[in-house]
Amino acid sequence: MPLRDLLLGLLVIAIWALNIVVIKVGVAELPPLLMTTLRFALVALILVPFHPVSRAQLPFLLLLSVTFGTLHFAMLFIGLGQSEAGTGALLVQMGTPFATILAVIFLKEKLGPKRLAGLLLSFAGVVVLAGGPTLPAPLPLGILLLSALGWAVSQLLIKRGPAIAPLALAGWIALFAVPQVALGSWLFESGQWQAIRAAGLAGWGAVFYTALMSSILAYGIWYALLRRHPVNKVVPMTLLVPVLAVGLGALLMGDPLGVHKLAGGGLVVAGVGLILLRFQKRRPAP
Questions:
Q1: pLDDT digits over 46-90, tens only?
Q2: How far apart are CA 235 and CA 51, in angstroms?
Q3: Residue 286: strand, helix, or coil
Q4: What is the pTM assigned to this prediction?
Q5: Which of these, 6, 57, 201, 244, has the minimum number of CB atoms within 10 Å of its CB?
Q6: Is the dihedral of CA 44, 50, 51, 53 positive or negative?
Q7: How far is CA 55 from CA 29, 52, 58, 62, 154, in A?
C-alpha cells in the first residue's frame, strides 16, 4: 500500500478510536438517545439530498436502520455512558466473532480451525475482562454486547442485500433511525430540552464529531481505500481501533490500565485478528 493510503488508513483508525472517547464525553452532557438522535439527524441532513436510492431499496434500508442504527449505535451510546471508554471499545469488537457465528449458522459458512481459535480467544478475553474491576455492571455489559450483535447482524444483511453506495447507506439508515431513537429518548429519557440548552462546547462538539468526522469523513476515506486495495490489506487495520481507544481512554479520561484489561483486551484483539486476517501460503522458490 502506498504511504499516502497507509497514512489515510491510520487517520481513519485514529478518528474511530477517538470517537469512542468523544461519545463518552458527549453523553456526559446529553442523554445518550438524544445525542444519537441529533447525530443521525445531522448525518441524514448532509447525505440524503445528495445520495438518492430507489424505492425498491427502502425496505432493506428500513431494516438496517433497526439493526445498525438503533440496535448498534443507540446501544453503543447508552453502554459507553455507563462504562470506561477503552473497555467499551474492546467489548464492541465482539461484533466480529458474533458475525462469524451468525455466518456459520445462517449462511452455512465453514468455520475452520483458525476462525475457531479466533472465536475461543475472543470469548476468553471477555472472561478475563470479567475478572477485573473495569468491566461494567451486568446491564451496560449486556447493552454493549447487544450493540456488537447489532453490528454483526447488520454486516450479514449488507453482505446479502442489494448493492448500495456506502454514503447513501449511511445517510438513509440515519434518516430512518431518527424517529426510532427519538421515540426511545421520549419514552426513556427526561430533561431533553434542558440538556440541549445547557450543553456546552463538549456536548455539541461530540455531536458534530460523531456525525461529520466518524460517520462521513472516516467512512468516505475508508471505502475509497477499499476500492483501491484488497480487503485483506485494509480491514486488518481496524484491529488498531480498540488498542488506540484503550490508550486514549487512559490518556484523556484517566481510565486505569490494569492487568485484566491489558490481558483480556489482548486476547480479544488477537482473536478478532485470527478471524479477520487471511494468511497466504508461501510459494516454493523456483
A1: 999 999 999 999 999 999 999 999 999 999 999 998 888 888 888
A2: 25
A3: coil
A4: 0.88
A5: 201
A6: positive
A7: 38, 9, 5, 11, 20
